[in-house]
UniProtKB/TrEMBL annotation:
Keyword set includes Signal: yes
Source taxon at top rank: Bacteria
Keywords associated with the record: Signal
Signal peptide, first to last residue: 1-31
Organism: Conyzicola nivalis
Protein name: WxL domain-containing protein
């Protein structure tokens, strides 16, 4: 036998076997179980009903409001903006609410202080708002009255129950915002000013 011919045939057979093993093995493995394929996992949760008393709570959808100049005249400068939405939620049942109780939201504001030493702008003489109910039953909750600049903004009502809290069943959620207005004289010192508007929920 020609040794070189035998060696050639042996090498060819071995090389072919290696090729078949790699291609065939890989093909079978991928067809039966692709380790990189997508797998779905079902996720479930069961939420039990809350036990215990309900609550009366207020949230505000933001921590700041910017006023920009709009509607100024030769004698007055006017700045307007919008209060972030205020939501009152009552999850109490009627028997959890004291007889005759009702809730209301009041707003109070500090004077506008200048960041560069400008004289303060007195909010009681210059600031006002127009509250508006934007969600919830208007038959059970009413927005507060408009307060124009100069009318004395102090503990001004934003929202209030129209009836006793216990008469509204089931309890729900009400949201409101307010158009804000600052009116100053034309000679007001230029610069940046800031004030803090506090909203308080009472019952």
């Amino acid at each position: 036998m020609n040794r070189r011919a035998f060696a050639f045939r042996a090498t060819t057979a071995f090389a072919g076997a290696v090729t078949l093993s790699v291609v065939g093995g890989s093909g079978i493995a991928l067809a039966l179980d692709d380790p990189h394929g997508d797998k779905d996992v079902a996720v479930s949760v069961e939420i039990a009903e809350l036990e215990g008393p309900g609550v009366l709570a207020m949230t505000v959808a933001g921590q700041s409001a910017a006023l920009t100049e709009s509607g100024s005249t030769a004698t007055n400068r006017q700045f307007t903006g919008t209060l972030p939405t205020v939501t009152v939620t009552d999850t109490r049942t009627a028997d959890e609410i004291p007889a005759g109780a009702y809730w209301y939201v009041l707003g109070s504001i500090t004077d506008f202080s200048g960041t560069a030493g400008q004289p303060d702008i007195a909010s009681a003489d210059s600031f006002g708002w127009t509250p508006k109910l934007v969600a919830g039953d208007p038959g059970s909750v009413a927005a507060g009255d408009e307060v124009d600049p100069g009318e004395g903004f102090t503990d001004s009502e934003m929202l209030a129950m129209a009836y006793d809290s216990g008469e509204i069943a089931p309890e729900g959620s009400w949201s409101a915002n307010a158009d804000l207005k600052l009116l100053t004289g034309a000679a007001v010192a230029p610069g940046k000013y800031s004030a803090t508007l506090t909203l308080s929920l009472f019952e």
